[in-house]
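# nightly structure sweep
# worker-07 picked up a monomer target from the shared queue
# config: single-sequence mode, recycle default, output format = structure tokens
# input follows
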Amino acid sequence: MATIKVRQNGPYLVEGDDVTVVDWNGATYTLAKRPFALCRCGASTNKPFCDGTHSKIGFKGAEEAAREFDAQKQQPAPQGTQGTQG
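# output follows
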């Protein structure tokens, strides 16, 4: 049985022996090691596998990004930045 763990601000960690990764053409990837990580940030040079780039680019998972977006919406706009003309 396979288990896929969503790592906070990181890749999908795939554990288990009964796993096959297939590309869009139906070709099967060779899985050299277990567990392995699948890219979630989209910046890996080894897609679909993670190469650690997420930590270099400051990737934020959807959950954290949504929290930050919601927090920014709650903050009032700085004074003097709206409706002023020069």
